[in-house]
Amino acid sequence: MIYAFVQRLLRDQSGIGFVELALVAPLLALMFLGMIDMSKVIATRVDLEQAAQRTTDLALGKRPPNGNTAYLVAEAVAASGVPSSDVTVTLTCECNGVVQNKFTDMCNGGQVTRRFATVSIKKQVSTGFNWRIVGAMFTGGSATYTPITVIGDSVVRLQ
C-alpha cells in the first residue's frame, strides 16, 4: 500500500509549475527591487554629473581670476539642489605637470602651464530595500540601513 502510494506520487506531475514558481518568485522579486533601486542611483548619478558639468562650463566661460570658487559653489548648489557642504570645487595650477600651491601661481618661463577646475557633488540616495541585510543573512550578522552616497564630478582645463 505504501509502495503504491509512493509510486503514484512519483508519477503525479500536477502542481510542479506552482512549486517551481514558489522557488523562483523570491529571486524574481529581489531582481525587480534591485532594478528599481539601481535606476534611482543611476538617475541621481546622471543628474549630479550634469550639474557638475554645468558648473565646469561656467568656470570655462567665466574664468576664476583670483582663485575664488564661491560663484562656482553657488552654481553647483543651484544646479544640483544639494547643500554647499556636499559640493567641492578645486582650482589647480600645474607647471610641467607639477601641482602648485596656489591656482594663481605663475610658472617660470619655458614651463607648460595648465589650470584645471574640478567640481565634485555628492548626495545620499535612499533605496527602498536594505540590501545589506541580504548579505547578513548568509554571514549570520546584522546589518543596519545606510543610504548610498552617489558622486558626480567633472573636470575642465582652463589653460
TrEMBL record:
User: Which InterPro entries does the record match to this protein?
Assistant: TadE-like_dom
Superkingdom, taxonomy of origin: Bacteria
The alphabetized UniProt keywords are:
Membrane, Transmembrane, Transmembrane helix
Domain TadE-like, chain residue ranges per copy: 15-54
Q: Which residues cross the membrane?
A: 15-36
In Swiss-Prot or TrEMBL terms, this protein is called: Pilus assembly protein
